[in-house]
Design brief:
heterodimer; A: 315 residues; alpha/beta; Rossmann fold; 2 domains; 6-stranded parallel sheet; 6-stranded mixed sheet; 12 strands; 48% helix; 20% strand; B: mainly alpha; ABC transporter involved in vitamin B12 uptake, BtuC; 1% strand
Chain lengths: 315, 335
C-alpha cells in the first residue's frame, strides 16, 4: 500500500518538476530578479517591464518577491536560491540592505553583478541602482497638496509601514517639505495601515472623526491611497483633498470620478525594464550608469490620458 | 503498530522513533523523494552551498515548529510564536544595542522574555480559562504592537555587538571540518530539537505534556496540578521562541520589528506535516523536524526550477493537505 502511494506521489512530483523545466531553457543568459513584493499591481508592473526587456534582449528572467514587505528573512532565502542557479546577473530590491550584505558579498566574489532596483542598497557592491527618488516625489505631493488647500490648514498622512525605505522616505519627504515651505499647514497625524485597503479605510475614518476640520490626506502607496478614498467616501467628506501614490485601476477611477485630486506615479515598468537592461550590460562587462533615475510624475484628471502619463500607469 | 498515546521510551533510539516508525518513515520517504526529484530536475539543486541554504532557511521555522509542537501535544495551540520571536529579537536589540550590555546578557534577556511571555499565555489559558486559540491570538497582536513600540518602529542593528552574527551565521562545525560549513543556526536547531525530545521523552514535564493532550480531565482527577504543568509547557515553548528570535536577529544582523506575522502558520504546517495531531496527545520532535525540512526543500526546489511564484504557493498548499491526508489514512488502517 505504502509503496503504491509513494509511487503515485513520486509520479505527481515528477510531473510538477517537468512543468518546471519548460520555464528554464539552458542556452539563454539568465537573470534573477528578487523583488520586495509580488502580489501588488505595482510589482506586477515592474515584472511586466522586466519581461519586456527580457524579450527584447533575448534573455531569460525570473521574478520573485516575499508575500509582504516585512519578510526580510524570506527575501534572503530567495536571494540564496537565486545564487544557487548561477545567474549571469541579479536584480535586487532590498527590504533591508544590511541583512543582505553577506549574500551580496558572496555574489560579488562569484563575479555575479548586482543591480539594485526600487530602492538602493547601503553598500558599494551593486553595479547600478534603478530607483525612484521617493523623497523628491513625496515633496512634490506636498507641493500639490498645499496648492489645492490654499496653503494653510490641517492635513494627515496614511502610509503603508514604518520600517521600509519607501514608507520612511515618503513620509519624511512630505513632512519635510511642509515644514520648510508651508508653515501654515499642520500635519495632525501619520498613521500606518500596512498598505491594506480595509485597514487604511478604518484609519482614515477615525482621522476624519477626530479632525472635522481636516483639509487633506496623503495616501503614501496604492493600498493606503485607496483606503483613504474609501474612508472619505464612507464618511461623506468628499470636500477633503486626497492625494495618492502609484496607480492601479481603482485609484485611476477615483481620480476620474473626482474623489481623488491626483497622485504621484513612479515608473514601475521603467524600473523593471532598466533593471534588466543594466543587468544584461553588466553581465556582458559593458559600462553601466551608476544611478539610473527612473522618474516620477504627478497626474490628475487633466493629464491622466496623456500618452506620457498613460504609459507609466498600470491597472 | 503505532502507539496512540505515546508512552515515554527509555532509550534514545526508541525515543526518537516513538509513536510509530511507519509514519516517520513516510514523512522521511517524502523528504527523500523530494530531494531525489529536485536533484534529477536541476544540477544546481544538490550542491553543498544550496543544501546549506536549505538548512539555514529551516533553522528559524524549525525552532518555532519545535515550540509549537510542545504546545500542540497538550491539545493547545500557540498562534503567538512568530510575533513572540520578533519581540525577543527586539528585546535582544534593546539590551545589546541601546543599553550596550555584553552579548550573554542579551541572549539571556531574549530567552527570558520569551519564557515570561509564554508563561503569560499559559496563565491566560490555565488560570483564566481563555481558550488557547484566543489567548495566543491576543498575545500575538499584543507582542506585534509591543515590538513596534519598544523599537520605535525602526529596525535595531547589532553593529556594536561584534560576534552577534556568529550565533546563526558563523560555523563552529566549519572551523573543525572546513568541508562542512554548516552554520551555527542549524546546529542550534538540532540542539533545540534534541533538548525538546529529551524533555518530552525523559522528564515528568514531557509525560504530563502528552497526558494533558490525551485526557486532561483524567490527569486532573488523579490529583495532578494541571494548571501549573500547562503553564510550564507554554513557558518552555516561549523560551524556545526566544532562541528563534536570537537566530533570526543574528542572521539579519538586526531586529526587524514588523516581521513575524504569518510565521506561526508555517510553524504549525511543519508540525502537522510531521504527523503531530492537532487534537493533542500525539507527536514527535523528529517528525516536526522532518516536516520543517519538507517545507523548505519544497520552497527552495521549486525556486531552483524557476516555477513561477503563484504556482509555488499552490503546490505548497497541496503538499500540506496531501501529507496530512496520507498520515490520516495510515492511522485509520492501523488503529
Amino acid at each position: 500500500m505504502f509503496t503504491r502511494r509513494l509511487f503515485l506521489g513520486a509520479i505527481s512530483a515528477a510531473a510538477l518538476l517537468a512543468s518546471g523545466f519548460s520555464a528554464s531553457s539552458q542556452d539563454k543568459m539568465y537573470i534573477a530578479l528578487i523583488s520586495k513584493g509580488f502580489q501588488h499591481q505595482f510589482w506586477q508592473a515592474v515584472k511586466a517591464g522586466a519581461d519586456k526587456a527580457a524579450a527584447e534582449l533575448g534573455v531569460e528572467v525570473t521574478f520573485e518577491g516575499p508575500d509582504n514587505e516585512t519578510m526580510v528573512d524570506r527575501q534572503i532565502d530567495m536571494l540564496s536560491a537565486a545564487l544557487a542557479k548561477k545567474p549571469a546577473a541579479i536584480g535586487f530590491a532590498a527590504l533591508d540592505s544590511q541583512a543582505a550584505i553577506p549574500l551580496l558579498k558572496q555574489a560579488d566574489e562569484a563575479g555575479i553583478p548586482i543591480i539594485a532596483f526600487d530602492s538602493g542598497v547601503d553598500s558599494d557592491i551593486p553595479t547600478a541602482t534603478a530607483a525612484t527618488d521617493n523623497l523628491a516625489a513625496a515633496a512634490l505631493a506636498a507641493d500639490k497638496m498645499a496648492e489645492l488647500i490654499g496653503g494653510s490648514g490641517k492635513v494627515a498622512i496614511v502610509a503603508h509601514d514604518q520600517t521600509s525605505r519607501t514608507g520612511i522616505d515618503r513620509v519624511e519627504g512630505f513632512q519635510k517639505q511642509v515644514e520648510e515651505k508651508y508653515p501654515d499647514i499642520e500635519i495632525v497625524t501619520v498613521q500606518y495601515g500596512g498598505g491594506d485597503h480595509l485597514k487604511s479605510t478604518e484609519i482614515t475614518k477615525s482621522i476624519l472623526q477626530a479632525n472635522p476640520d481636516l483639509k487633506g490626506i496623503f495616501g503614501a502607496n496604492e493600498g493606503s491611497a485607496i483606503g483613504v478614498v474609501n474612508g472619505v467616501r464612507e464618511m461623506n467628506r468628499t470636500d477633503v483633498v486626497v492625494i495618492g501614490y502609484d496607480s492601479g485601476a481603482q485609484q485611476k477611477q477615483a481620480i476620474k470620478d473626482g474623489l481623488m485630486a491626483g497622485a504621484i506615479t513612479q515608473n514601475p515598468v521603467g524600473i523593471g525594464y532598466e533593471t534588466v537592461k543594466a543587468a544584461v550590460a553588466a553581465a556582458k562587462g559593458e559600462p553601466v550608469q551608476k544611478e539610473i533615475d527612473t522618474g516620477f510624475y504627478y497626474y490628475d484628471k487633466n493629464n491622466i490620458d496623456d500618452p506620457e502619463i498613460a504609459a507609466v500607469l498600470y491597472d | 503498530m503505532s502507539t496512540v498515546e505515546a508512552a515515554p521510551r527509555p532509550r534514545l533510539a526508541a525515543r526518537l522513533f516513538a509513536s510509530g516508525a511507519h509514519q516517520r518513515l513516510l514523512a522521511f520517504a517524502s523528504l527523500i523523494i523530494l530531494l531525489v526529484g529536485f536533484s534529477l530536475a536541476s544540477p544546481n539543486f544538490m550542491q553543498m552551498s544550496n543544501i546549506i541554504a536549505i538548512l539555514q532557511a529551516t533553522s528559524v521555522n524549525g525552532v518555532l515548529a519545535v515550540a509549537a509542537t510542545l504546545v500542540i501535544i497538550t491539545g493547545g495551540i500557540d498562534l503567538s510564536v512568530g510575533t513572540l520571536m520578533t519581540f525577543c529579537a527586539v528585546i535582544a536589540g534593546v539590551v545589546l544595542t541601546y543599553w550596550g550590555m555584553p552579548m550573554p546578557l542579551g541572549i539571556l534577556a531574549a530567552v527570558a522574555a520569551g519564557a515570561l511571555c509564554g508563561l503569560t499565555s499559559g496563565t491566560f489559558i490555565a488560570k483564566m480559562k481563555i481558550p488557547p486559540f484566543i489567548a495566543t491570538l491576543g498575545m500575538m497582536l499584543m507582542l506585534k504592537g509591543l515590538s513596534l513600540v519598544i523599537s520605535g518602529t525602526r529596525p535595531i542593528y547589532f553593529n556594536d555587538t561584534p560576534g552577534f552574527t556568529e550565533i546563526a551565521s558563523g560555523s563552529v562545525i566549519g572551523a573543525v571540518i572546513p568541508a562542512l560549513p554548516v552554520p551555527n543556526g542549524v546546529l542550534i536547531l538540532f540542539l533545540v530539537a534534541i533538548g525538546a525530545s529529551y524533555i518530552l521523552g525523559r522528564t515528568v514535564l514531557g509525560r504530563y505534556t502528552f497526558a494533558l493532550g490525551s485526557n486532561e480531565e483524567a490527569v486532573r482527577l488523579s490529583g495532578v496540578n494541571v494548571d501549573a504543568w500547562k503553564m510550564a509547557v507554554y513557558a518552555l515553548a516561549g523560551g524556545i521562541c526566544g532562541i528563534a528570535g536570537l537566530l533570526i536577529a543574528s542572521r539579519l544582523n538586526s531586529a526587524q520589528p514588523a516581521l513575524g506575522l504569518g510565521y506561526e502558520l508555517e510553524a504549525i504546517a511543519a508540525v502537522v506535516i510531521g504527523g503531530t495531531s492537532l487534537a493533542g496527545g500525539r507527536g514527535t520532535i523528529l517528525g516536526t523536524l522532518i516536516g520543517a525540512l519538507i517545507m523548505s526543500v519544497l520552497t527552495n526546489g521549486l525556486r531552483i526550477l524557476s516555477v513561477t511564484q503563484e504556482w509555488q504557493t499552490v503546490v505548497t498548499g497541496a503538499i500540506i493537505i496531501l501529507a496530512v491526508y496520507i498520515d490520516m489514512m495510515r492511522r485509520r488502517r492501523t488503529v
